Recover the amino acids of this structure.
DNA sequence: ATTAGCACTCAACGCCATAGAGTGCTAATA
DNA sequence: TATTAGCACTCTATGGCGTTGAGTGCTAAT
């Protein structure tokens, strides 16, 4: 028995209905809504076949059917039609981005917010990873007589800052000199390239004065530490949206889910795994986390100057509206990339 | 009828029991657990009185009683005994703070985490407000030929940073000079004092060269903007803990609650209202938010160099273990203040 | 003042009958 | 041969009903 066009149309009708209602769909409903002008009996026969093909599941005999994970996968790959946002929705997005925004963190938060608002699912986003950004300058700014602020600046702005101790015998002028040397040595390199390899020579040169040797060593440690901590952070929003869905209406299920979703590492992994593709869709068990049963995740990357910098996504029940989510992600992704470009690269 | 010692002891027994079980407490239970050696009948008479005093409530006739908000208030004010943490718990806290920590944000997040872990309620914390910090230096660091990073540094480290546009005719050397002038003019002041009053003179001085006038104006705007945005942020942790409590086991109730708790402004208000007292306890309707029925909030302030900088707190059901929460908040508050002191003020 | 005793209340639970949505099969139909 | 009408069957959901048991509130005895 083959998966002919009619079967696909019936499957599509069932998915459409189930996505709306979360209730098993009966043959009579399909007969009415599918537009195929077939009796419920005929639909029943087809549904029986779809069941055998592993595309439909029944909670129990004599109940309607619901799509299997396999069905959603098939839907996403072959059936789904591209959907578009209406002008209200587009406006809603641009409104969010036209507010005054202070720095990357703010943009990222706004994005998480609007993403969850528009989809009614939970949104997640990781801040841009700046390990590939080019170092421009390293500056040690005195703060008190025994402390200074180490600032690492790249072509996209502030990368890292850390408080370091400075022996009082080192003058402000000397700090400037050290800053300059560090800048000369490391400028143009990437953050990830500040490593042991560059250090020894540099520090021999810097460490010529005995009394500041210890300070120079500490400084080196600090630089290395700063370059290692990736500092990519995860924002989520709208976890409570998930509680509205009947699939999580059992308090125990909901608790487990929220439990899992509070583990930032896990979400970080989910998002960072998918940075190479423009979009990624994981359905149910394709997310290899047993705690996230009945969930799907759709992610998209955002970029600056064409270079992917991070990713964002949406988590909802497997019966999510994939088409709409993709449209929203696509649009927001573009807006976000634009904003980031304006912040960093534009020259007007 | 007066509230004599015996009634108080009975009330205490009921509260103790109810805090544990969340189930209405019957007279027989009190008779057994109160240590008063009274029959259930006697207890019943006393409980009747406590009911008339508004300290006990019954879900329905012929069920046991539970403490009213008034009862919790009385308990907190008069009955509660100070509790102490055991050595395991103290160790658990210090372990969290002995990890490598990168900057204030990290400390704050760790605090939220440990607070929620130890109490099993939801934790909330606001980042230190640094408006009273003393400005030390303002530095404009070139990034590309038309952009620079504006960095505002105080005695406690980095305060603000922002990308600003720089006309290409302004040389790096000139930026240094401007930085120096700004530093001279504003150093020693507080962030909140960067206002129009200081600006005109300063900018007349800076703006002597015609071509850079526009840039100087923009710089002024940026400084003002940076000084205004308070940038105090709210972290919460463990919202899902609340789902474990039977008072929120109804999915609708839980949804409403989580809904409310996702509004950062509201939590910010809750926390910042209570920065003048070392501890603050709000029980039920004392939190004037209709969405937070059945909730109590305990907050504490943390400080640096004796000056209160922010506050943190715990949100849970009204039947929370106030005594334990206070002990935990007290200990964590001390640890947090110590850490912040080490980060900023220590001179070793 | 305290307590034993007892009738009364009320939620919780299990049981059962019923209704209704939906299937799966068979026989009739185009 | 594909489709459909018809019907028995399955299973869940719902509501009514009696029972159970925890707990009160009152009264009379101690």
């Amino acid at each position: 028995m083959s998966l002919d066009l009619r079967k696909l149309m019936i499957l599509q009708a069932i998915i459409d209905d189930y996505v709306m209602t979360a209730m098993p769909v009966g043959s009579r409903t399909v007969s009415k809504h599918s537009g195929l002008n077939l009796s419920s009996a005929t639909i029943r026969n087809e549904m029986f076949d779809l069941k055998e093909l592993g595309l439909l599941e029944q909670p129990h005999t004599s109940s309607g059917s619901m799509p299997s994970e396999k069905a959603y996968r098939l839907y996403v790959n072959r059936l789904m039609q591209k959907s578009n946002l209406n002008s209200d929705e587009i406006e809603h997005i641009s409104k969010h981005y036209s507010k005054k925004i202070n720095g990357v963190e703010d943009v990222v938060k706004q994005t998480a917010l609007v993403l969850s608002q528009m989809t009614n699912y939970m949104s997640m986003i990781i801040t841009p990873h700046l390990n590939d950004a080019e170092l421009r300058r390293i500056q040690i700014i005195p703060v008190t007589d025994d402390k200074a602020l180490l600032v690492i600046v790249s072509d996209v702005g502030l990368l890292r800052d850390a408080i370091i101790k400075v022996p009082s015998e080192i003058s402000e002028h000397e700090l400037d000199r050290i800053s300059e040397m560090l800048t000369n040595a490391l400028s143009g390199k990437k953050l990830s390239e500040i490593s042991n390899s560059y250090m020894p020579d540099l520090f021999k040169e810097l460490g010529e004065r005995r009394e500041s040797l210890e300070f120079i060593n500490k400084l080196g440690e600090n630089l290395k530490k700063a370059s290692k901590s990736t500092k990519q952070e995860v924002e989520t929003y709208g976890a409570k949206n998930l509680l509205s869905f009947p699939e999580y209406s059992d308090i125990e299920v909901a608790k487990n889910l929220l439990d899992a979703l509070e583990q930032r590492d896990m979400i970080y992994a989910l998002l960072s795994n998918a940075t190479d593709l423009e979009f990624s869709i994981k359905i149910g068990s394709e997310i290899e986390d047993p705690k996230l049963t009945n969930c799907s995740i759709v992610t998209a990357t955002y970029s600056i100057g064409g270079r992917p910098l991070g990713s964002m996504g949406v988590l909802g029940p497997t019966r999510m509206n994939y088409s709409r989510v993709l449209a929203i992600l696509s649009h927001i992704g573009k807006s976000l990339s634009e904003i980031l470009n304006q912040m960093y690269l534009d020259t007007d």
